[in-house]
Structure formats: structure tokens, C-alpha cells
Amino acid sequence: MGQRQWYLEYRIHKNRPGLLGDIASMLGMLEVNILTINGVEGDTRGLLLESDEDEKIEQIGKMLAKVDSITVTALRSPRLVDLLAVRHGRYIERDSDDLKTFRFSRDELGLLVDFLGEVLKKDGHQMIGLKGMPRVGKTESIIAGSVCAMKRWTFVSSTLLRQTIRTQLSEEENNSQHVFIIDGIISTMRSNEKHNQLIKQIMEMPSTKVIEHPDVFIEHTDYSYDDFDIIIELRNNPEEQIVKDTFATQYPED
Question: Which domains does the chain have, with CATH numbers?
């Protein structure tokens, strides 16, 4: 069996001296490599491990279950959120009732860009919705995430520099490796028939579409919430309310 990565997370009840050293020594005796270790929000620790035998990981779980000063909260193949938690030292907030919704605040832009960079690396069709009030950093985050994913991006509709409403793609842009950025307000409330046809064409391409203001987009098109693979909410602060009724009045008319 080849090398395989695992994510170990535990909560500390009593942070006695030498606790981490004891755990690291146990892993070393079983020849399990520690690739990354970081504190994850308070008294929680996350470790990215590598082992050539699944049985060793099972044994680690049984041994750690007998340690009174900690409680193992995760021992699994690493998910994207696990990798980012170890890398940044904090977990991405998720909706407890809707696990495809991820929440970020503006002081977590680095974490958001890293998250988007990993998501945008995926090939094929995917729809990502990005909610947030104006000027919170939505478009800039998408661009930075595209750079991290080493993919080019195309504005289909936008107000970043000036109001953009595209009606066709260039030969170079007509490529499934592009990330297509769509402003859900501009594309539904300021568009024309040619633009609508372009949106339909892009939606049928095996590529990534990132739609800002997905609530407005859903309200004025035939697409539904179920069509989205991921919904991201970006706020200036965790308490901010994202109120879509205020968006249209802040968008310029032609």
C-alpha cells in the first residue's frame, strides 16, 4: 500500500507539559509521519499525517481514546476544510443546516482566497454562488482565487471598473479552463437578449461559473438553489446582514 494522508484532530481538556511530545512520539514509534500541525481554534489541535498502513491509523485512534487529557474529534481522510484548517489555524464556518454554505468575514480574505483557489482547481461544470454586500471584496477574492488555481478568468458581467455586459466570447475565452464571473444583478436586471443567450451558452459549458448575488440570479432566472454546488457568504463582520433588497439601488443604470 502506498502512502496515504490522514487528518487527526483532538480537543485538549488538560494541557499538561509534554502532551504534544507524547503524541508525536507515539506516532513516530508507529512510523506515521506528521506533515503539518497547527492549533485550530482554541484548545483544538489538527495534524496532517501520512502512513502506508491504515491499520496503524486505527491503532492510533484506539490508543488516543485512552488518553484522559484529550478527546479525538476527527480521524479521517482529509477534506478540503481540514487541509485549510491546518494551514490557517482556523475552521471555515459552515451552515449547520446547509453544509454547502460557507461563511467568511472580511478579515478572513486570505482563508477565502485559499479556499476558492482549491475549489477552482476542479475541472468540469460547477456553479459557485458568492453573496455579500457591495464593496466587501467579492470580485477581488474570485480573481485572487483564480490566480491561485492558475486559471484565467472572464468577466461576463461586472461593475468592478465599469459596467460590463458581454454578448459574446472571444475564441480564447471560449475555453472550459476559464473561470466565468457573472454578476447576478447585472445579468438579470441590466441585460439584453444577446447577453441572456451568452449566459445560457456558458451555463452549458463544462467550466466553473462564479455568480455574485446568487439570490437575485435565482429569483430572475430558471436556475434554482439546487443548481449551485457551493454558496459562499462574505461579510464585513460576522454580525452583518446581507440584505439583497438594497443591491439594485446601488447599481448604476446605463
Answer: 4-84 (3.30.70.260), 92-250 (3.40.50)
Q: Is the per-residue pLDDT at 101 higher than 60?
A: yes
Band of pLDDT at residue 222, cut at 50, 70 and 90:
very high
In a 3-state reduction of DSSP, which class is residue 103?
A: strand
Tell me the β-bridge partners of 47. Answer: 8, 37
- Please state, in angstroms and as integers, the Cα–Cα distance from residue 42 to each residue in 91, 103, 159, following that order: 11, 19, 40
Q: Is 135 left (phi over 0), alpha (psi -120 to 50) or beta?
A: left
Whether residue 78 contacts residue 48, with contact meaning beta carbons closer than 8 Å, is answered with: yes
| pLDDT tens column, 42-60 | 789 999 999 999 999 999 9
Query: Could you give the CA distance from residue 109 to residue 117 in angstroms, rounded to a whole number?
Result: 12
Residue 75 to residues 43, 71, 165, Cα–Cα distance (Å): 17, 11, 48
Q: Indicate the average pLDDT of the chain.
A: 90
Tell me which amino acid residue 61 is. G
pLDDT of residue 245: 59
